[in-house]
Design goal:
The protein is an alpha+beta fold and 258 residues long. It has 2 domains: 14-80, no CATH class; 88-253, SPRY domain (Jelly Rolls, Sandwich), CATH 2.60.120.920. It is built from 6 helices and 15 strands. Strands 1, 4, 6, 7, 8, 9, 10 and 14 form an 8-stranded antiparallel β-sheet that branches. Strands 2-3-15-5-11-12-13 form a 7-stranded antiparallel β-sheet. A hairpin with a 2-residue loop joins strand 9 (176-179) and strand 10 (182-186). The radius of gyration is 20 Å and the shape is elongated. 36% of the residues are buried. Keywords: Neurogenesis, Synapse, Ubl conjugation pathway. It is found in: Synapse. Residues 6-54 form the F-box domain.
């Protein structure tokens, strides 16, 4: 029976495929894309009803109530972004993830620096994600990457992300790059570089093949920030100190520049 299905797989009409695939789980759909060119073509349509149903079933409805997910236009890319969003089990105890699944909220706790990592880390390939800060930055507001061994909470107001050899960050408050407890120069390399304004879009670009970390602001490439990254698994990470500030993160996939 299974051999018969595989033999006739390329001839199954799309409306029948849609019905069959609607009963399957995500890992089954991934396997189905390997069966034949016809099934692969069908599942490559990231806005068809199969991906729409999966997206609406798994992504919280709150995530669609503003423009947060407009940077990932297809249903499949929205679903992918959700699986890469902030990890509610890998953040400071003073942080909680809002019902939309993409935004963290830092509680107003004095003398504490608090961070959060994404659900999925990267060791191979090229990856980009967008970070948007809502609310005052305070004295420390750092965006970047960290391994699982980096701390995500500490006492006092401290540039936590970049404080050890397991994290790399850009402090948006003073435009300093931070790693291993040291400042690694002003970033971006511009005279009188403008400071970050709340609500501006920051894109983080991690190239695990070239071992570099770069940033964009409002779709303008700012240059490579860090080179010679070690061969480790890196997670999207932020660190904040200001009470009630909120930070959203949306995974974009591979950078569009190729």
């Amino acid at each position: 029976m299974e051999d018969d299905l595989i033999e006739y797989a390329p001839n199954i009409p799309d409306n029948v495929l849609e019905l069959i695939f609607s009963y399957l789980k995500l890992h089954d759909l991934r396997n189905c894309a390997l069966v034949c060119k016809s099934w692969y073509r069908f599942l490559c349509d990231e806005n068809n009803e199969v991906w729409r149903a999966q997206c609406l079933q798994k992504v919280p409805a709150e995530a669609f109530k503003n423009d947060l997910l407009t940077v990932v236009p297809s249903y499949k890319s929205k679903l992918r972004a959700f699986f890469h969003a902030w990890n509610p089990f890998d953040c400071s105890r003073h942080v909680y993830i809002k019902p939309n699944g993409f935004t963290l909220h830092r509680n107003p706790v004095a003398q504490s620096t608090d961070g959060s990592r994404g659900k999925i880390g990267f060791k191979h390939g090229r990856h980009a994600w967008e970070v948007r800060w809502e609310g005052p930055l305070g004295t420390v507001a750092v965006v970047g990457i960290a391994t699982k061994d980096a701390a995500i909470q500490c006492h006092g107001y401290y540039a936590l992300l970049g404080a050890d050899d397991q994290s790399w960050g850009w402090n948006l408050v003073d435009n300093l790059l931070l790693h291993n407890g040291d400042a690694h120069g002003i970033y971006p390399l511009l005279n009188n570089a403008p400071k970050y304004k709340v609500g501006e879009r920051i894109r983080v670009i991690l190239d695990c093949d070239d071992n570099t970390l770069s940033f964009e602001k409002n779709y303008e490439f700012l240059g490579v920030a860090f080179t010679d990254l070690p061969d480790k698994i890196f997670f999207p990470t932020v660190a904040a100190v200001y009470g009630n500030t909120e930070i959203s993160m949306v995974y974009l996939g591979a950078p569009l520049d190729g």
